[in-house]
Design brief:
The protein has 19 helices and 16 strands. The chain is α/β, with parallel strands linked by helices. A five-stranded parallel sheet has the order 5-2-1-9-6, with helices on both faces. Strands 15-14-13-16 form a four-stranded parallel sheet, with helices on both faces. Strands 8-7-12 form a three-stranded parallel sheet.
Length: 491
């Protein structure tokens, strides 16, 4: 979030001696001072209100009136963050939350990798929900105006969930168009528009939706709760209002000077009665931790078990899966194994030896069992130019017994798949779309081929009949394992 600064105007006053006999002359000066102070106070209040988006005459302050046209629909919005796998995990949780609360889910775009970071729940060091929502808002409009906006629904196949009425959805662009009253030419830039400066109405609408003006009566309910204070539950009798088993220890309290208490709260009892048109969460990421969950503990709720099973695995759209099968059958052309090697990011850059050891053992086992050469598809964040002096470099040299295959972002199959996705517009084919905004389906497609390399790589690895070796602790590896478990390559 960009901070707002006020530039001070420096003025110098020359101090003049006041004659003892001139006391009456001070009266006009004091009046001038009082008038100046009053004028400054009024101006300051006006400026502050405008910057915070709470001026009754500002465009953003009028947006709650627009939500009256949406009274038949109630929405849930949240702030995704981190890498794609974490964003997908949050999206699954959002689907469950929307179903429990009977709200229409605002489907977000895929954010750039780590463009928005939450922080650490176990360390009780996370971005406040308001800041997180505003960071997401700003980044989303960067994506829109650089024509890199790709909805999660463009990549993830929601057709079965939608057709079964398990969840109602609305594209983020459509939602913003309605709620903020944004001109479509502003939301969907033309090819000639190279630069973008968010206008006041969008900026102030972002502040409002992020919760910087507090609650907006029946229009917006912005939650401040996060993983430091709350664990959301559902249908667990007797747990609502009780303390969670995971709390900050005394050492952390003293070191960080914190006093957080984590309470388990039933999401339906707490938020079900909320009548606001828009319910805005911060992060919806959770994970098991020390016998509890970091933020959401709803995966065992009996009443939504059917939906839980459906969202446990959400496949890629057919365009991506077809690309993976095509690469396997027409480029590799033989049975192969897949190696997913995350070597450069975060904790993984310090564990090369362990990562390569698992791959080496798998290769040796396959060489002992089968015929040569052994085909290996490699997906890694280490550029090929840096493979020299690594185990990957050694494998590449041994071309008589090993055939390594890689996919590049400028390969024909990648660029053609990106174009097919842009033409399909899957994200705009589902959900709530008023007739007045029907033209949005034709004007919001990204003109640039999006970075879908990762998704096609995952689909290729799902087709590896000789096995898969992934990086321990990588959410990408977990995603591939899930795809292989559900046998998505076989169709």
């Amino acid at each position: 979030m960009e901070s707002v600064s006020f530039n001070k105007i420096n003025s110098r006053w020359k101090k003049r001696p006041v004659p003892r006999s001139s006391f009456p002359s001070l009266l006009p000066l004091s009046l001038v001072f009082l008038l100046f102070s009053l004028l400054f106070f009024v101006s300051y209040k006006h400026i502050s209100s405008s910057l915070l988006g709470i001026s009754k005459d500002s465009p953003a302050a009028q947006s709650p009136h627009r939500c009256k046209t949406l009274t038949s629909e109630k929405f849930i919005w949240y702030a995704p963050h981190s890498g794609f796998s974490n964003q997908l995990s949050e999206f699954k949780n959002a689907i469950l939350m929307a179903a429990i609360l009977n709200r229409t889910l605002v489907v977000p775009p895929i954010l750039d990798h780590h463009a928005v970071a939450l922080g650490s729940c176990p360390k009780f060091r996370v971005l406040d929900s308001k800041e997180l929502r505003l960071s997401v808002w700003n980044h989303v409009f960067e994506l829109i105006h650089s024509r890199r906006y790709v909805s999660l629904a463009d990549i993830i196949d929601l057709s079965k969930l939608i057709s079964a009425s398990d969840v109602r959805v609305i594209d983020f662009r459509v939602f913003v168009s309605i709620w903020c009253g944004v001109n479509m030419d502003l939301v969907c830039p033309k090819e000639s528009e190279k630069q973008f400066s968010m206008d006041d109405s969008l900026r102030q609408c972002g502040l409002l939706l992020s919760g910087y003006s507090g609650g907006l009566n029946d229009c917006l309910y912005a939650l401040d709760e996060d993983c430091r204070t709350t664990v959301w539950t559902y249908g667990k009798d007797g747990e609502d209002g009780t303390l969670d088993s995971f709390q900050p220890d005394e050492q952390l309290k003293k070191k960080k000077k914190i006093s957080y208490v984590r309470t388990r709260r039933d999401v339906l009892k707490t938020l079900g009665p909320v009548s606001a048109t828009v319910l805005a969460f911060g992060s919806l990421f959770t994970a098991p931790y020390k016998g509890s969950e970091l933020y959401m503990d709803i995966r065992e709720a009996p009443s939504i078990q059917s939906l839980i099973e459906k969202v446990r695995f959400l496949p890629f759209v057919p365009e991506i899966m077809s690309a993976g099968r095509e690469f396997a059958s027409k480029t590799i052309k033989s049975p192969f194994m897949c190696a997913q090697l995350r070597l450069l990011d975060g904790q993984f850059k310090n564990h090369w030896k362990a990562t390569f050891l698992g791959l080496q053992q798998k290769i040796e086992a396959l060489q002992h069992e089968g015929s040569l050469p052994l085909h290996i598809f490699v997906m890694t964040d280490l550029p090929e130019g840096n493979w020299t002096e690594t185990y990957l470099g050694d494998l590449a040299k041994d071309s008589d017994v090993l055939k390594l295959h890689v996919l590049h972002e400028n390969d024909e199959i990648v660029t053609q798949t990106a174009k097919k996705l842009a033409a399909a517009g899957n994200g705009m084919n589902f959900g709530f779309l008023p007739e007045s905004l029907d033209g949005l389906t034709k004007s919001c497609h990204p003109s640039l081929t999006s970075d879908i390399l990762l998704y096609i790589e995952e689909s290729i690895c799902s087709c590896a009949s000789l096995g898969f070796v992934g990086t321990s602790g990588s959410t990408i590896a977990e995603s591939i394992e899930l795809m292989r478990k559900y046998a998505v390559c076989s169709g």
